Each structure stands twice: as C-alpha cells, then as structure tokens.
Amino acid sequence: MSAIIQAKGLRYSYEDGTEALKGIDFELQPGETVALLGANGSGKTTFALHLNGLLKATAGSVVVDGLEVKESNLKAIRRRVGLVFQDSDNQLFMPTVLEDVAFGPLAAGMAADLAMERAQQVLEQVGMAHKAGKAPWHLSAGEKKRVAIAGILAEEPKVLVLDEPTTFLDPPGQRALAALLADLPQAKILITHDVPFAERLTDTAVFFREGRIAARNSIAAIVREFDW
Q1: Which of 7, 74, 86, 115 has CB 3.0 to 4.6 Å from 26, enough for a Cys bridge?
Q2: Domain edges within the chain
Q3: What is the pLDDT along the chain (228 residues), one digit of tens a residue?
C-alpha cells in the first residue's frame, strides 16, 4: 500500500537561521491515525504546516497522494489535506454555520445549490444540522469544533490534521469529539499533549524532539521512554 503522506529529509529554517526541522522522515498510510507527541517547540506543528504547503521546506520533500508539495500542486493538495486549527474561531467567519461549511466547495467552483447540499450533508454527519442557521460565534466550543471539522469534510479530504483538538473542550466534549473522529474514514494526524485523548483514537505515536523524530512506537512505550 502506498503512503498517503511521505516526507523525506524534511528541513525547515526560520528567517533568522534557526533550524526548526532537522531531517524528518515520516509516512502515513491511508486510513491510519498517528499522534504527534513532544514538547512545545519540538517541531510538530511546523511539520504539519508543510503537509499542505503553508510552509515551504528548506530541503527535503513531502508527497501527498502521489503529488509533490510544490506551488503547482498546492490547490489539489489542499483539497486532500484538511487542517483543523487549535482555535476554531480562526476557521469560522461566515454569518451562518451553513454558509461557513459551504464556503470551501463554493470557493472550489461548486454550484451554489450543490455546495449547500454538501454542507447540509456534512453537518448531519457531525451532528450539527440543527445549528445550520445559527451564527458560529453563538456556538459552544465543542459545537465550533464540529463545525470546523464539517467545513474541512465538505471538501472531501483524504487526510485530517488536527492541532491540539481538545483545547477549550470539557471532558464530555472531548469524548464526543473522539467518537466523531473514530467514525471518520480519513487518515488522521493528531498533534496533541492530551495522551488519553490520543489513546482513544490510536496506539501509534511519533515523538518529536528538537526538530527531529526521536521515536515511532506505541503511545504507551513513548510515554514510558520520554519525559516532556
């Protein structure tokens, strides 16, 4: 089976010369879920921002579904890799939930009636169809997270990348989010410090330390081996 994401020798340096990624080799298989663990500043989010071209590698390569991450492929790659930000307020900006979820398909050129139909379908999928006419800023944190995920699902991605997905969620909200994600067929990358949440969705983790991948193992083995 071919990897849906493959990074080889990935390096990235900031403008001041600080090297944030120091030769990352990584593979994600279709339908696989992997947790990225490690301290703040270890390179997890910097790595994730290379997966759909939000950052440009200093060296090395990333291939998504057979497409190299480069300028000419970015439009296609960004349909394949959906980023769910830590703070849902950074993703929700339209007057109503339905309009927000339909925004991506409309921007991709889908006819308005089909985009609204698609938005309604994914809102039903995430349990938020009853909030379609509400303003996003009137939702709870858990509801905002579901709508943000719906907005990504509306573009039919093959990979979901979730940055600290349990931020702002209470325990019931975390459990509901885990149940939702477990039902989605897409491959997933979870950037998280929340080990119990990650364990609800996968046993596989990659540990980042100082811009390198220090280990790929079970979550339990990484927690035993590393202190962060």
Answers
A1: 7
A2: 5-225
A3: 689 999 999 999 998 888 999 999 999 999 999 999 999 999 999 999 999 999 999 999 999 999 999 999 999 999 999 999 999 988 899 999 999 999 999 998 999 999 999 999 999 999 999 999 999 999 999 999 999 999 999 999 999 999 999 999 999 999 999 999 999 999 999 999 999 999 999 999 999 999 999 999 999 999 999 977
Q: What is the DSSP string of 85-146?
A: -SSGGGT--SSSHHHHHHHHHHHTT--HHHHHHHHHHHHHHTT-GGGTTS-GGGS-HHHHHH
Q: Is the dihedral of CA 193, 195, 200, 205 positive or negative?
A: positive
- Answer yes or no: CATH 3.40.50.12780 is held by domain 5-225: no
